[in-house]
Amino acid sequence: MKQIVEKYRALKPTIDYLSDEIVIAQAWKKTHGYIRSFNWYADTLALDVSALTIEGNAKKWAGQISRGRNLKKLELVPAAKSEAWMFDDTGWHPKDFSKRNKKSPLRPLAHLTIRDQTWASAAMLCLADAVETVQGNCSNKNQSFEMTRASKVYSYGNRLVCDWKNKDKAWFRWGNSETYRKFFTDYQNFLKRPLELGRLVSNQALGSENVFIVNLDLSKFYNTIDVDVLIERLQDISSGFGHEICDDFWVAFKRITNWQWSQEDIDLAKELKLGDIETGLPQGLVSAGFYANAYLADFDQKIGDKIGGVLSKTGNIVLHDYCRYVDDLRLVISTDDITPQKIADEINKVIGKLLIKFGGDKLALNTEKTKVTHLSDLDNSGSMANRIEMIQSDLSGPADRDILDSTAGILENLLTIEDEATPVLGDNHADLALLQISSFDHDIRPDTLKRFAANRLESIVRSKRRIVSLDDKETEHEGSNELLAKKLILAWMKDPSLALVLRKAIEIYPDADLFEPVFKAIFERSSFAKGNQEKDKTTQTMMDYLLSDLFRCASDFNGYFQVITYPENIKPFAVIELLARYAQKVIATDGLFSFTVRQAMMLLAVTNKPVLLNTGDNIQKDLHSILVNNPPAYQSQRSALFEVAAQITDNFDTYASLFLEHIEDLTEQRYAALEPFAKRGGPFWLALWKQLNKKVSFKAIARQIKWAAPQVSLQPKPRKQLLSKVICSDINGFEFEHALIKLALGLVDGADRDPSIVAKSPNEITVKLSPSYSWDKVWLAEVKEIECELAPSKTGADPRFVIPTWIDTQSSQDNGIIYWVGTILRASVLGGADFTGSHWKVGETVTYKGLRTSWYKRRMGMMHSPESIIGEFATVSGWFSDLLMRCLQWPGFESSFVQHKDVRAVLDLESFILCLKERLGYLNDLICKSSSLPVLPTEVYRPNNKEKFRIVTVQQLLPRTTDFSAADVQLNNESFRAKHRDHLLAVCQLTVKTLEAKLKSDGDEKKPSADLIVFPEVSVHIDDQDVIKRLADKTQSIVFAGLVFTDHKGKLVNIARWFIPDYRESGRQWIIRDQGKENMTIPEKQMGITGFRPCQHIINVHGHPDGPFRLTGAICYDATDIRLAADLKDKTDLFVITAHNKDVNTFDNMASALQYHMYQHVVITNIGEFGGSTIQAPFKEPYDRLISHVHGVGQIAISTADIDLAAFKRSSKKYKEVKTKPAGV
């Protein structure tokens, strides 16, 4: 359905696109997300301001591009690079000061305003398809590296997230929030490619040939890019792609890339030996990676053209492959018997010349980093890359205590690896052969290894704390954690640029006494220390950078420490207090860099330690003024700071009242000041609305903005009602897909009768059921239709429901109607007027969270998954998500990701109505009529060529019946939580090992896998579901597990959760479905558990040759309901029961009865305390019927079975004989 205006189908490098408000808004969205994630030194408050005001700023910035507004000056942020430090009798200092004369240990990062960043990103959006196409598809999982080489794909780093609609043509997802592809995936491919292709060469090589991998590094790559040459190359690429040259675009492009530095920063850069910062791309520009790839696109192709030929006659060096990751180049070569040093010299010479010829005059290789390594040193299980992959594999699964301990030892060793330079010996030196033996390459830089090790060690410590009981072992465990923190500090001391390593040390053992000497050493070497003894400006700059990073970390820690549990003897907030004292010293002293002061002021604001400064004009100063109730003069762009202050203090009413006082004198502008908050929603808007109605002077404004008033939950009677009253009530029947489809049909019918209803909000629409039923029963098949009419407005028009300009209403009014129906449906299922919202719960931490979103941003980036709009009980299915995706399109969004064919077939209102009616008929047929229960199908696509369906039953021991008590129904006792999680990890690891053993015996798989893993009832605490997800990921399995009693809207309920990993091109996503339990046992009633089963889930598994297979589940006592079994017998192929049941004989008999009367496989997984887990099916022979059964009590048992789910629906009789069908089946 071509719902979007044709203009936005594909962007082009024209001024019309570059100055388009919608393109600017999408460029801002990508820029905003990237900076928050990767640019630690960014002004986060400026990002908050831009998030609240982006609706107005997008228009303003688009106009400024057309009018030719100049850029702001760049701000220099010198960041520390890797440098060796040491201790001796003079103290802690750089190992070799003389090296700084040749190479500065600083990198010149640049801080740009969010507007200037957005402009460069907008140009990137216009050029993306052309530049990505010329580089080729590096993400094709169906291609081997040999095929990728044949396709002339060489570039891996900083590649954009694209779809390849045609084989060779890229389409950048410019409407999504992500910009670049995942680092880990592309970097792993970059490392693997030379090895795989080198292996092919080695297998075909003559006996005298040696195969080498050559690592090359570009020196100061970003700084040496000539922007004028870049523009010429971009024009060539664009023309080659088929774009016409738009002179106005390129004039504007030259203006928005004409970055300028202040003279002060230029002089400082020279003093610090940072090179010529006035040339090249700013490091810190979000789009810099994209432009750098464009700059080298021709060079990549020219080097690629030489593959298969002789690169140098000296030694007969033949080039077999080339690939590049940003400034890191890898070559696969073969050569006659010449030394690696000679190879390096020849490669440096040849590639250096080609680099100047096809890259640029200023580009050069950093020859000191050139490495030539025998393929055999890298292509083996002992190579560092392979070891890292093994560590990742171990930790990605359900890592138990043994795995955590053994992996931690390996990672600690990585902290001690140093980059030791090898000497250069002459060709005839007697020890040359000896040197070559010792100069094998680790293939990953030591600083990268240390960052990796620090990250994983912190994760391991966090995992181990959750399984260590509060006993004597905790003291021993925390002692080892303190020692580990010291080891990390030592690794940082040897290379102070490893700020992340220091941060992880703090997270592992946040003890103020331990870190005070560290912070003191940094501060006293910084430019902010009074009577500074450090005369070296480079060292001062490094320490200023480290201080800034520590202040930023402390701001993050303020929230992090509220959710991470540490032993009582550790006082993590004392570390924040200590850093806050240094922040106070920083703002009281004149130092070199304003970015350090910004981070210091931000930390003091986050910890609610405001100070009033007499000088300077920045956002941080204004926030401090607001925190002390003394706001500066009104600026609309800084209104967001009032909400930030409310977040920091958790006093939303106080700062809402202060904001109203602040705007009281604006008269005409008061509505404009409030509207962004009204559209954004959230706790600050609720507080503003509350205060608005208290202030007489704001009564008129309150009436004017009543469309955003919070809805009050009432109990609407079964008669004509405002839609807003129904969806905000406790009996909102529009949480069900059946009801939403009826509502959609009613809205379309209402729009046909009265077109003026289109673009109205739920506050302006009445609904009436025919025939009349309670509003929570709208899903019933007996409710045939919903009448929708326009109601007289009491709140005024809601601007959020206006049809956006990107919807093509000129070609067809159907597009506008379908979009509006989508807004009403989404608002109805969410239960509020803001259709752009989500179901995610708000965190309980009191700290700075920032303003990451707004209504305007959300409208162009909504998530429609059932989990995000209704929650895990998912009373709507993936089909409804697809429907919303089809209705609520936005520019740069590709609705071809819709999986359901009937939704994809929607082209206009006629096909829309047909799609809705067919789906409603299908859902009505699925309803469990005897049980009066709606059924929701979930489609799961799992490509699988096997005929059999592998199922695993996991019978664990904990928790036992005696572990539950009225005092601890949810098993939250800390000591038992640790014991329970430890047991679950061990059982999950045992499951993986069982599958590995099974697969090795079969000899048909490389990785452990299953189709379904089933755990008992109440066996997994809700805080341990991460363990189940890791198991599902490791085995690529669907998991059905009973969760320990959990809270749902204030009531304790019993649920079993479907964990379904959904593997797509964009990565793995989770489909989560909660199966409720309706019938409570006597012990459950005594503990206050409430029955809650809003629907029955059926999982339709596609991909098997005889599929799809239909799976459903029930929790213990619910399985004894013969009405449910009767309802499901024709609808499913596998009935799965999670149990915590001591009456094993009864359940054995029940399984025997169910498998025949439902005529399908039945699986029961019981707790090990009682045993009796079984898999049965109605085959003719008894030995076939009982597929699996675990006898005996107190048993841990992992049982696997390959079952034939198609046996009872297959017409052929060549398989196992089945029993005669029961009557009625």
Automatic annotation (TrEMBL):
Lineage: Bacteria, Pseudomonadati, Pseudomonadota, Gammaproteobacteria, Alteromonadales
InterPro entries to which the protein is assigned, alphabetical: C-N_Hydrolase_sf, GrpII_Intron_Splice-Mob/Def, RT_dom
Domain of life: Bacteria
Organism expressing this protein natively: Shewanella benthica KT99
Name of the protein this chain belongs to: Reverse transcriptase domain-containing protein
Family under the similarity heading: Belongs to the bacterial reverse transcriptase family.
PANTHER family documented for this protein: NUCLEAR INTRON MATURASE 1, MITOCHONDRIAL-RELATED (PTHR34047), PROTEIN YKFC (PTHR34047:SF8)
Residues of the Reverse transcriptase domain: 143-385
